[in-house]
Amino acid sequence: MTRRDVDKLQDEIEELFADLWQVPRFSGIRHGFRPNVDCFHTDDPHSLTVVVELPGVDPQSVHVVAGERVLVIAGERKRPRVPGRVYQQMEIEYGPFERRVRLVEDVDPNRAQARFGNGVLTVELPVVEQAMPPGRYRITVERLP
């Protein structure tokens, strides 16, 4: 076996694993779409930031709620209606979504800032020493131009 054969085999294995992580679009297993989420911590200011990719989502449909070390982002990406459309290929996911992000520290949702621009939602949550009283806190999303 040559180096070239090994490289080719490695490429085929990587492609196989990439394919295994993909759920077939028409299998009925997936419902709606699942946006990608990043969450990171900063020290100055001490906060947790959650970034969610929401291309094609109407900012008015996005709801952000915090409570008991969980941040919930929900909404819907609607498929545009075009009369007479006959699809050749359908890969873009549409429908309702909900992402729950576990927060590793106590935050103050009353001082949280949420901004939506260019298809990206960014939620900044100040970290606090003492947990807020139990409950659900709605966070207003600011729409950027």
- The number of E-state strands comes to 9
Order of helices and strands: HEEEEEEEEE
How many domains, as an integer?
A: 1
Distance separating the two termini = 57 Å
Q: Uncertain regions: pLDDT < 50 for 5+ in a row?
A: 23-30
Average pLDDT value? 86
Describe the structure.
By secondary structure, this protein is mainly β. The chain has one domain: Immunoglobulin-like (Sandwich), CATH 2.60.40.790. It has 1 helix and 9 strands. The chain has a 5-stranded mixed β-sheet, with no helix packed on it. It has a 4-stranded antiparallel β-sheet with strand order 5-4-3-8, with no helix packed on it. It is flat and about 60 Å long. About 6% of the residues have low confidence.
Element layout with pairings:
Elements: H1 3-20, E1 37-43, E2 46-53, E3 63-67, E4 70-77, E5 95-102, E6 113-117, E7 120-126, E8 137-139, E9 141-143
Parallel strand pairs: 6-9
Antiparallel strand pairs: 1-2, 2-7, 3-4, 3-8, 4-5, 6-7
Care to give the gist of this entry?
With 145 residues, this protein is mostly beta strands.
